[in-house]
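User: What would this chain look like folded?
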Amino acid sequence: MLKKVEFVLLLMSLLITPSIVHSQTDDFGGIGSVSVSKNIGTFTSLSLEQELRMDRQLSSVSRSSTSVSADFTIARRLLKAELDYILMYRRNSNERYEYRHRFTAGFVGQYRIDRIALKLRTRGQATLRDEMRGDYGFNPKYVWRNRLAIEYNIRKSPFTPYISGEIFTPINGKQGFFMDSYRLVGGTEYKLSKKSSLDFQIRFDKDVQIAEPKSIIWGGIGWNYSFD
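Assistant: Here's the prediction, encoded as structure tokens.
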């Protein structure tokens, strides 16, 4: 068991530490969320989430969003499909707030090695922006996202630590098809009961390969409840 814990900690240091140490951080923010979920039959799950993000050293609202999601099991414990709709009210580059509609569709593959779970998610994302609030050359904006996550299920413990890395690749941006940002996350789920849990995380977002790249560290906490 100790060797497995050391393996997870080593991966965390390899994935997260170099980028945070060697990158200048421009901002710090906070994320709070509440979500509920319900299984519909054996192969389908629905969830609803409300999220609030504060940036600029926690002094300004970056965005508020409401999301509805559906998961469809294709192969139990191996593969599932995801569909999401997100209604966002967020600040744009002109310092004005606008509504945006985001649609995502993708797949999540999972492979378990004893108490370690490896998860690979790939998804396409389309975001519709308000032309009355900004001049957008590409609307909707399409992005391809890929994330690798590692979870460790600690025996007889309410904690489930995890790490993940994700890259974002615009499909119809003016610079063409290339990665323009990435995200690193480290956190843990803490089970309060069979139906509810808390999620704690530290997230690092960074722009790359653009004229004025920005980076931000987020501290996040979320409460999750399952009706099953």
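The longest strand covers residues 97-113. If you want, I can go into more detail on any region.
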